């Protein structure tokens, strides 16, 4: 199985490192400084496990001759160029780990519906320096055929993840898991970006936790309007946030924050924070823009979602000038 990862940032590099360590044929495609360091010294992965592994790596996607599995780990604004760069490949499986509910549409338009498999993850990672990435939270990954069939190719990818020691599941409906992740990701991302605080501190602030719960419940409200019933999945813990009394949900978040701090997991941040600090375009359209439009179409009031969407979009406006 030849696995090509388009976008060797933190997440793509952690996936690639674990898969390469397990013996899979992995190629990373990424930016020059990181790739040159990997070529010279191997890929260093730290966190729950620490190792250095040699991985094939390149800055030029056109030099990659073939791929059985093509994984997109680039940011949403980079998708059009990434698709152009891999136009010569004809993989059996294509999956996107980008954020948002419409991430598979560009892949289907480019490759056709046949190769595209649904995927999402809550594994968290940071790039510390060129050639060195840290897994800050060993979260689950979910794969599923877009029509939720069980297929041999799906099981092959899942078995690869398990062999690599990466937590993985095949849910009953991959689309519902993507909604569930978004209900948690949206609050984490926007609060991290706006406050500049790490995840565990956001959870321990009663005021920020209040906003967190409100945002999650508004996403749930939109999902219900489109006949999606968000469930509970390992590492997300949404049931109490969505259904418990509001004050109780805030306390649940506070407990999670204290648990993370006690475990030393204090370096979990978000792409949103990185984007805003680097003054580059964020993924707010993918994370919140579609939700706002869906809410409008359904005649729903979602004031918290709309407010954070417009605040960060306004910050994007000035970052691009």
Descriptive account of the structure:
With 321 residues, the chain is α/β, with parallel strands linked by helices. It is 50% helix and 17% strand. It is built from 13 helices and twelve strands. The strands form two sheets. The chain has an eight-stranded mixed beta sheet. A four-stranded mixed beta sheet has the order 4-3-10-9. The N and C termini lie far apart (44 Å). The model has no long low-confidence stretch (mean pLDDT 96).
Fold topology:
Blueprint: E1 2-6, H1 10-21, E2 25-29, H2 32-41, E3 43-46, E4 51-53, E5 56-58, E6 69-72, H3 79-85, E7 93-96, H4 104-111, E8 116-121, E9 124-129, E10 132-137, E11 141-145, H5 152-163, E12 168-169, H6 174-195, H7 199-204, H8 206-225, H9 238-243, H10 246-262, H11 271-278, H12 284-297, H13 303-319
Parallel strand pairs: 1-2, 1-6, 2-5, 3-10, 6-7, 7-8, 11-12
Antiparallel strand pairs: 3-4, 8-11, 9-10
Helix pairs in contact: 6-8, 6-11, 6-13, 8-10, 12-13
Q: TL;DR of this structure?
A:
This protein is 50% helix and 17% strand. The chain is built from 13 helices and 12 strands. Helix 6 packs across helix 11, helix 8 packs across helix 10 and helix 12 packs across helix 13.
């Amino acid at each position: 199985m030849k696995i090509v990862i388009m976008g060797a940032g933190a997440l793509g590099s952690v996936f690639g490192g674990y898969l390469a360590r397990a013996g899979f044929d992995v190629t990373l495609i990424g930016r020059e400084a990181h790739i040159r360091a990997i070529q010279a010294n191997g890929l260093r992965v730290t966190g729950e496990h620490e190792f250095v592994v040699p991985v094939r790596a390149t800055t030029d996607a056109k030099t990659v001759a073939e791929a059985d599995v093509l994984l997109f780990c680039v940011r949403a604004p980079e998708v059009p160029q990434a698709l152009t760069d891999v136009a010569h490949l004809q993989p059996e499986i294509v999956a996107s780990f980008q954020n948002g509910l419409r991430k598979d549409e560009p892949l289907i338009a480019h490759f056709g519906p046949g190769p595209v498999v649904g995927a999402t993850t809550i594994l968290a990672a940071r790039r510390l320096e060129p050639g060195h990435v840290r897994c800050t939270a060993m979260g689950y990954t979910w794969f599923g055929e877009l029509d939720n069939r069980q297929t041999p190719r799906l099981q092959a990818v899942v078995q690869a993840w398990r062999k690599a020691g990466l937590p993985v599941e095949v849910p009953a409906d991959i689309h519902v898991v993507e909604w569930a992740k978004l209900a948690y990701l949206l609050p984490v991302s926007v609060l991290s970006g706006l406050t500049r605080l790490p995840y565990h501190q956001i959870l321990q602030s009663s005021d920020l936790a209040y906003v967190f719960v409100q945002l999650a419940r508004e996403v749930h409200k939109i999902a219900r309007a489109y006949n999606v019933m968000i469930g509970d999945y390992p590492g997300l813990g949404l049931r109490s946030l969505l259904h418990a009394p509001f004050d109780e949900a805030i306390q649940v978040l506070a407990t999670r924050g204290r648990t993370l701090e006690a475990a030393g997991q204090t370096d979990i941040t978000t792409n949103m924070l990185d984007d805003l600090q680097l003054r580059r375009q964020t993924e707010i359209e993918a994370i919140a823009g579609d939700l706002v439009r869906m809410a409008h179409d359904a005649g729903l009031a979602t004031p918290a979602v709309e407010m954070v969407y417009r605040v960060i979009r306004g910050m994007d406006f000035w970052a691009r000038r």
